[in-house]
Amino acid sequence: MLERLEHFIHQQPSFEKARVANLVRMPGGASKETWAFDLGLTREGDEKTLPMVLRIERSSPLPASLAMGKEFLLLREMYSAGIQVPKPFWSGAEAMGSPFYILARIEGETLVRRLQREDRYEKARQIIPGQLAEILARIHRISLADTPFDFLPWRSRTDSPALGELLFYERFLDQFSPDPHPAIELVMRWLKGHLPPARDQVILHGDYRLGNIIFNEQGVQSILDWELAHIGDPHEDLGYISVQAWRFGQDSKPIGGIGLREDFYQAYEQAGGIPLDRESLHYWEIFGNLKWAIITILQTTPFLQGASQSIELASLGRKTAEVELQMLTLMDS
Fold first, then answer.
1. Which listed CATH number (3.30.1130.10, 3.40.1080.10, 3.30.420.40, 3.30.200.20) goes with 2-104?
2. What are the structural domain ranges in the chain?
3. Cα dist from 37 to 34, 53, 145, 302, whole Å
4. How far apart are CA 301 and CA 308, in angstroms?
């Protein structure tokens, strides 16, 4: 691994003599294999160390996700637009045996439970919901006309983006679910019968939640994991962040267990986001739970088929029933 990584980096201009050190597998990463390393440089007699991250596609990628090369292109555009993402360096398809990319490593914490519970993050808990709302508003304001985002998928260019999303995930449910899920089918039928009005579509992160950020005592440091990005209704990102699974038991604060919905919505609008429709937000929160329920099935499939031995992926299948209950509860509210 180290030799292949160093050989690839040596092929990049100005990095011909760079040294890879402290290569270590990082915990987590259900969607991708993630490694941290330090890149040592000597230039004009000066020694410099760049903290870096290597992300490698797993053998059975999530079917709904962007190809890694496209995710890397999106990260590059987001970085250029001033969005808080790690600086992208390089991507490749063969050197590491699977598609991969290399980013700057941002120091900080990623475990939401620590944010929720530890005293040192008391200030961060107060400011992170507003920071996330402001960042999301800036993402949604990026012009599709002025920036080359042709590589991002549109679920529907002319009809309802909500229906396009439903049909997109319905295909995965039909193709990959090993068992029938009548609750998911019922909720999907309800969502098809209550489609929100079509609106101007924007760039969506697609997986916008506290589990996909790096934070410290000062708040949000970086937005991670753009593999579900696409073009769609901006309400989708705002509904998704309220999904019950991201609260880790702190249901009184629907925004990741640390914030309230209305405060988040107002912060988003005040930061220049679109004027929000509260009924549409409720719809997209139900859809966010539906999407997560289907993703738990997709994540478990490689384990059930013998393509992966990951206990983390296997355990996600146990969460499907929890999400089904939440969907039914929201649908009746």
1. 3.30.200.20
2. 2-104, 112-332
3. 10, 6, 37, 28
4. 9
Say how far residue 28 (Cα) sits from the centre of its chain. 14
CA distance 129 to 321: 28
- The pLDDT value given to residue 318: 78
3-state secondary structure of 187: helix
Segment 120-178, tens digit of pLDDT = 999 999 999 999 999 999 999 999 986 688 899 998 877 899 999 999 999 999 998 88
Q: Quick one: average pLDDT of 268-275?
A: 97
Whether 2-104 shares its CATH topology with 112-332 is answered no
Strands (E), the chain: 19-25, 32-43, 46-57, 88-92, 100-104, 202-204, 213-216, 219-223, 230-232
Separation CA 242–CA 276 (nearest Å): 15
**What's the DSSP call for residue 305?**
T
- Give the angle subtended at the CA of 226 by the CAs of 223 and 230, to the nearest 5°: 130
How far is residue 179 from each of residues 5, 94, 109, 235, 304, measured CA to CA in Å? 41, 36, 37, 31, 12
Q: What angle do CA 153, 156, 161 make, to 5 degrees?
A: 105
pLDDT at 258 over 70: yes
Q: In what order do the strands lie in the sheet with 88-92?
A: 19-25, 32-43, 46-57, 100-104, 88-92
Q: Which helix (H) or strand (E) holds 247?
A: none
Place of tokens 């120091």: 107
| DSSP assignment of 64-104 | TSPPHHHHHHHHHHHHHTT-S-PPEEEEESSTTSS-EEEEE
CATH fold of the domain at 112-332: Aminoglycoside 3'-phosphotransferase; Chain: A, domain 2 (3.90.1200)
